[in-house]
Amino acid sequence: MDRVDEARRPPAGRRFRIQYCLGSGGFGDVYRATMIGSGGVETDVALKMLHNALKKDGRSVRRLRDEGRMLGALNHPSILHIHDLVVLSGRVALVTEYVPGEDLSRCLNQMPESVALEVLARVADALSTAWAARSPDGEPLSLIHRDIKPSNIRMGRHGQVKVLDFGIAKAHNVERESHTAANSVVGSFLYMAPERFDNRGDTPASDVFSMGCILYEALAGQRLYAKMSAKSLYLLAMSDENHANHTAESLDSLQGVAPEVMALLRQMLSYEEEERPPVETLAHRLDDLAEGGTSVRKWAKRRDWPEDDEIDGELAGRVMSEHSVPIRSGTLESQTTEDTGVVTMVAVSVGSAIAALVAVAFVAWMWMG
Ligand SMILES: Nc1ncnc2c1ncn2[C@@H]1O[C@H](COP(=O)(O)OP(=O)(O)OP(=O)(O)O)[C@@H](O)[C@H]1O
Ligand SMILES: [Mg+2]
Q1: Are 147 and 165 in contact, with CB atoms under 8 Å apart?
Q2: Residue 353 is assigned to a structural domain of this protein
Q3: Are 94 and 47 a contacting pair, CB within 8 Å?
Q4: Which ligand approaches the C-alpha of residue 169 most closely?
Q5: pLDDT tens sequence across 183-225
Q6: What distance in Å separates the CA atoms of residue 243 and residue 273, rounded to the nearest whole number?
Q7: Could you tell me if 241 and 140 lie in one domain?
Q8: Is the pTM of this model over 0.85?
Q9: Ligand 1 neighbour 26 (Cβ under 6 A)
Q10: I need a labelling partner for 186 at 20 to 30 A (CA). Which of 150, 161, 175, 365 fits?
Q11: Closest ligand 1 atom to the C-alpha of 185?
Q12: Which of 43, 106, 154 to mutate to test the pocket of ligand 1 (most atoms within 8 A of CB)?
């Protein structure tokens, strides 16, 4: 090993004992693992091994790492705690706390209305905190999620509600388009605000719309856009009138929902971003509506939680050592110019990247019939 490599090597790398795969999505595979620190402390973690398309020294990774640091610094109970970003076997991996429990997508239809309202109140609180956070020098961070959906909300066995994949959507929106086979891309369409289909809007209002889709699903027992193809979703998003009609018809079909809950839901699902409730006040409104019913904590305590699906993954059973994310010599700027291909596209414009994602996934969807 030459002197440069020696210098790059972490002083005493952590090791990861990989147990099993928890699942795969548009960004990569998630493993449950034990992190063994240099002092011998063992911590239960989740390892999100990001797709190889991501250059480990590219701008996208730095963006992810920076956002991870900011999110880590927020220390919010409903924002997944990020330990670090590491490179394992040449792949970038996000190390986060492991949350024993189940995805909201698997238990949304089994929870009382008050529990669903409280879950969404916690999500809104997390989104609002991330949006309002400021850097140490006072600059607004304006962090938004962009991919709020039930499979990105994890319910913990002790009643924790954790928003997953914060920051990843932004850093990865270009890489994701090369994984159109992933149902998760299509899955995200089902919760996507209309303005995101044609690259309008980059505010928490779009996440508020996605939360409205989840609230509808909790109340109706089925998705707002059940059985709709990506093509028809796109066409619906392009017409404010058709969109409003679809929402009104869906809401009319709801039975036995309190008028105050209906009013908030209607607002959250508004076509126009300005008509949706501001994320800053949403948590309070949802909390007020949940009051008096079963709490998330009580529901979680009484629930019979299933074990994780232990999926065989290529890394299961392995012990891997950490290598620090290598930063080549030179400034961030000189490194940026070395970034090529899809990573550079992220750098050029996050907005156009979202448009590219939508366009490519849409074309792929049409192509597949
Ligand atoms: N920190 C964690 N603790 C426990 N389970 C987790 C953790 N992070 C992710 N998971 C689980 O791993 C599985 C795969 O997650 P992943 O985000 O890759 O897939 P997804 O949410 O279905 O798709 P997408 O890539 O579109 O977000 C999900 O069931 C998710 O809940
Ligand atoms: Mg996810």
Answers
A1: yes
A2: no
A3: yes
A4: 1
A5: 444 558 899 999 988 877 678 999 999 999 999 999 999 999 9
A6: 13
A7: yes
A8: no
A9: yes
A10: 161
A11: 26
A12: 154
